[in-house]
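Notebook B, p. 112. Complex prediction, attempt 2.
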Amino acid sequence: SSSAHQIPKHFKSLIYSTHEVEDCTKVLSVKNYTPKQDLSQSIVLKTLAFPINPSDINQLQGVYPSRPEKTYDYSTDEPAAIAGNEGVFEVVSLPSGSSKGDLKLGDRVIPLQANQGTWSNYRVFSSSSDLIKVNDLDLFSAATVSVNGCTGFQLVSDYIDWNSNGNEWIIQNAGTSSVSKIVTQVAKAKGIKTLSVIRDRDNFDEVAKVLEDKYGATKVISESQNNDKTFAKEVLSKILGENARVRLALNSVGGKSSASIARKLENNALMLTYGGMSKQPVTLPTSLHIFKGLTSKGYWVTEKNKKNPQSKIDTISDFIKMYNYGHIISPRDEIETLTWNTNTTTDEQLLELVKKGITGKGKKKMVVLEW
Amino acid sequence: SSSAHQIPKHFKSLIYSTHEVEDCTKVLSVKNYTPKQDLSQSIVLKTLAFPINPSDINQLQGVYPSRPEKTYDYSTDEPAAIAGNEGVFEVVSLPSGSSKGDLKLGDRVIPLQANQGTWSNYRVFSSSSDLIKVNDLDLFSAATVSVNGCTGFQLVSDYIDWNSNGNEWIIQNAGTSSVSKIVTQVAKAKGIKTLSVIRDRDNFDEVAKVLEDKYGATKVISESQNNDKTFAKEVLSKILGENARVRLALNSVGGKSSASIARKLENNALMLTYGGMSKQPVTLPTSLHIFKGLTSKGYWVTEKNKKNPQSKIDTISDFIKMYNYGHIISPRDEIETLTWNTNTTTDEQLLELVKKGITGKGKKKMVVLEW
């Protein structure tokens, strides 16, 4: 049982002291060290799973503007930090004092903030206020709710005062991304319609059907259609229907795609940019700003929730409610797991596993710990 | 004297019923007509001068999103509108009732709103509330204060809560434009510093000196410098000085220039786009939106002051105060006048004059009426 969990004298973490843009896996190493904290007076967590996010990789490269402080806490010669910003943990030991809050052994928790270091077998926190309970979420939702979950949820919820009885729409590009799938599910639950733009592909109809049937997108169109002025004039209004209001554009592509989704907004609307997969800058026809009153802003989950931690707590709480109602499904089908067996995986194997997670193509990678 | 002014039975206006993008001068004609209003019950204005603005030309082309209603008021077979959105007038006749407000014969006035039609020898208004008195301004300032004056003044004044004791900056491109010169003068009067970007040119030093000495720009740099990362790293901070805050970017160029001025902003700052002289879209590196909290919006003087006419009245009032203090100088040196002698210029000559004003290159054109 959890209460009988044996906490080892040494913790094992993936750490880095330097950065390298070209091959960031070079800066990672597996380190075994004695935690500095008095574990009997701490909240001790064992790690269940952590995803490998683009922002984690950008941190290793040294190109991400949010970063952890490097310390000597891990018995290194140079100051080091534990990699990773997101993960789900289980409470395995609690202090006797009030700092444990309402945490119980066996609770599933996620860190409130980024930059805590999650690529580790154990982590220690001093106060329950630095953690959020996510017992109701499955492993995959819990391990991704801080970044993709919050991003998708807050993009829909935090910027527009929606009228769920109106014919109100969000348009977004990168419609197959994990965040976009959260967006469509949350929007549907709130009575907001979504027009998702995806890249042209041979199996367009098949992919569109999954996004519509499984993830609740109201309608999926291709980038060709998105960029086609005839489509905008003749087909779009039929898709949107009577008195439609396209109030919010969500951009994570940039370039022409960003201009084309912005063009479909009503007057005085908002485009939020939260990614730039095309590596092209956000491109906005001047007339949209001047004559259509477009506002273009950015969204950064890390900064937003650092400035306002309560907003993250509230978001996760609402997210969990939607998950419990079945409005948001687990992202398990979008994830490829890499298994770290804490009893049998050697340090060398662990490092290779994580490197594979960083460099591998295709589905999002998540390291799942077997205990 | 003004009170003895003879109002003719026929007015003369430059009107249009159709639009043409290629050569918009074709749609203009000079029309003599009997005004429909009872002039004894109206505010009658004689025109002193009107500028030929890009937006006036865009209206003739049919590509401007704000446009006057076309009517049969001018004895035409097809509905027609009088061209022009801006101009300065003299009150030559007043009604006896309260609709004249505090207007006096001889007052210099401008229309409160756009789309009134200003390319005319006389105009009639029913209420003083549709006019703003500008007696203190010279002809050139008065004739341009509605568009360039308001634009420059409001860009500086209406978006940022400036600390005039701080080292606070505006960066703007198109630094030689008429609006940019208003911006630098208003900013200087308010204790805000300006970094004006101008195109590279052989006589850069000479032009920069005029902008700095005559128009109050704090510092002028070239587009090459604006786009140069080494300049941004090594020279810019010396120009800006200690604890500088670059809080507002004003873009009327677009493309690379817009990206480069946006890059120089502090975090969570604002870029306002009010023009697009390069014909390139507004281009914003994704990271500025996501990681630096940049907000990009548009500014449109017509729409802003239509929505909130009091804001225009207040702006003009403040503008006049600055003009009276000598903080804002007349734009007369930037303007080429075209003379319409109301006694001797024939209709054919008038049409040619205005066509020349539309197609002519170089300085801004203003038609000045001789009475």
